[in-house]
Amino acid sequence: MPQSLQPNNPFTLFLILILLMLSTNPDFDGQLAFLKSLVQATQLSVRTFQNGLGGLHAAMSQL
Question: Measuring CA to CA, which residue among 8, 4, 41 is closest to residue 19?
Answer without folding.
Answer: 4
